[in-house]
Design brief:
The protein is mainly beta. It has a single domain (about 1-295), classed as Porin (Beta Barrel), CATH 2.40.160. It has two helices and 15 strands. The protein has a 14-stranded antiparallel barrel with strand order 1-2-3-4-5-6-7-8-10-11-12-13-14-15. Strand 13 and strand 14 form a beta hairpin. The chain is globular and about 55 Å long. It comes from Flavobacterium hydatis (Cytophaga aquatilis). This is Membrane protein. Keywords: Signal. Pfam families: PorP_SprF. InterPro entries: PorP/SprF_Bacteroidetes.
Amino acid sequence: MIQNIKKIFTLITMLSVFGALAQQDPQYTQYMYNTLTVNSAYAGSLGHLAITGIYRTQWVGLEGAPKTASFSLDTPVGKRVGLGLSVISEEIGPSEEQYIDANFSYTIQSGLTHKLSFGIKGGGRVLNIDWTKGSYRDPDAQFRENITNKFLPVIGAGLYWHGERDYIGLSIPNFMTRERYDYDDIADDLVNQRMHVYLIGGIVFDLSANTKFKPATLIKYVAGAPLIADFSANFMFNDCLTLGASYRTSDSVSGLVSLQISPQILVGYAYDYTTTELQNYNSGTHEIMLRFELVSRKKGLKSPRFF
């Protein structure tokens, strides 16, 4: 009897959590290296072609927990224009989503040491839900039919003010909330698109000749949901090894490590420990990151890159 009650409680918890997650964009602990996915104005800001890949498996050991793979590419075109492409694939419970967005930025000088970029993005997400997967069956009528290749449009914009050692950005990745469309044939909890507002920022301080301190933050507001804030503190040693920690409000604490293998290649890893009741049902979250930066020999590459 007690075991059955625990199973029911676990199922209810999973369904409510997955429903809430489906209304929100994918999240990353190494957000400071993955800015293009939340702010289109970042496109081209490094001054050369950059390719970033991240794989995140959340709440390991919990059936149906989120798994996210993302790929982004951006490059400057001339002195003022930046172009970017981001592709994301995510699985949450019985649902699978694919995101693909094209990004455009235009940059102007802002004082002697900084630039201000304006960005727009356009694309869409394709949603599939198969209720025969796992333990997600629900007697309610709204969950009886599967969803196949449901397309939801995406239009977003952002601002990004940046220098060599600091940056701040404000963005809305998608203005197209679900309320603008009639999706009565779809389970509301899993298709409801809510507007997200992101504020991201970071700075680099020299602590010594070989040690740098790199605090960063990402604040996310989602309509109808509590404010979520990430606070990260990273230390870079010899322009090569970075160690740090991060805290996500009412969610998790994390450890981060990254290694600049060469001026062109950066690898990173993050581990999240859940601080909510879900910690009893999983063994943590793993996230790996790989970034390539390509530039001609004539132009040269500024190393290291801090964000």
